[in-house]
User: Which sequence fits this backbone?
């Protein structure tokens, strides 16, 4: 099957760099028009230039945790490109490392605002503004840190775990026209995870079955599948893309 997004329109949050930028480029290459959002306009301009198809990309500065920003982006997307078929809730934050038991509530609230309330209010805006009537696909970017407790990114992990449940709950509510799925990446070479891979070298062997670091395109390819008709009978799924890192076995550290 030829997986393409011809005639489709997508909104991708956190798309000025890293995984979000790779998803936006992959969608444009597959034929979609894409609205890219992030907080800083200069990062968005750079990402739009790198995608390099000005007629297919529109950048809007917006905060991923704010309902009013989501509503503004949905309205501007429909005005600009005429529809909204795919929403990728990709932006996330991680202001705190350490045990939940010692967590500052300000860091807890901030992490939940962006990582959990954000995907809900953006999905609500897309659903009410377009998808309820016309259908669509929502893809929420979680993490393998949301699948197993005990890691150092503790509050972040709680939000990413809750995002899986939120996505599955929404999937039960918005079918049959709207699908909601989750991508759970492992360690991917972006700014977000820099502390975890910097210094390891490009040909480093990592302790999991596929032995390499993830690239943003590894996640973008999976996000293309979930956006396209190739996944038309898939909803509420959690697609782990981690080089086999959560499997355990002889490679695990
Ligand atoms: N990299 C990994 O190893 C890894 C592993 C598992 C899951 N993930 C998940 O993958 C997603 C993308 O991560 P990444 O590694 O690509 O991160 P990244 O390279 O740091 O990029 C983050 C993007 O989100 C935007 N952003 C951050 N806070 C925002 C906010 N409050 N409102 C709007 N936009 C915001 C940033 O732009 P501005 O700063 O201009 O807003 C940027 O475009 C996240 O959900 C992350 O949890 C990443």
Assistant:
């Amino acid at each position: 099957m030829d997986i393409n997004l011809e005639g489709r329109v997508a909104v991708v949050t956190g798309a000025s760099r890293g995984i979000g930028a790779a998803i936006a480029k992959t969608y444009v290459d597959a034929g979609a028009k894409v609205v890219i959002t992030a907080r800083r306009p200069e990062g968005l301009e750079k990402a739009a230039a790198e995608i390099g198809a000005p007629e297919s990309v529109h950048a809007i500065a917006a905060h991923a945790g704010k309902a009013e920003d989501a509503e503004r982006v949905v309205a501007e997307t429909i005005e600009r490109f005429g529809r909204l078929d795919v929403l990728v809730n990709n932006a996330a934050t991680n202001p705190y490392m350490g045990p939940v038991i010692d967590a500052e509530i300000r860091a807890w609230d901030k992490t939940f605002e962006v990582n959990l309330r954000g995907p809900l209010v953006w999905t609500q805006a897309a659903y009410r503004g377009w998808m309820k009537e016309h259908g669509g696909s929502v893809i929420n970017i979680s993490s393998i840190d949301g699948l197993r407790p005990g890691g150092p990114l503790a509050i972040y992990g709680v939000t990413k775990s809750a995002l899986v449940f939120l996505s599955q709950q929404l999937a039960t509510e918005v079918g049959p026209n709207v699908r909601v799925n989750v991508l759970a990446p492992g360690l991917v070479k972006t700014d977000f995870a820099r502390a975890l891979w910097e210094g390891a070298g490009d040909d480093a062997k990592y302790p999991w079955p596929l032995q390499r670091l993830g690239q943003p395109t590894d996640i973008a390819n999976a996000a293309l599948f979930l956006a396209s008709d190739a996944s038309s009978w898939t909803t509420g799924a959690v697609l782990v893309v981690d080089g086999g890192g959560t499997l355990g076995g002889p490679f695990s550290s």
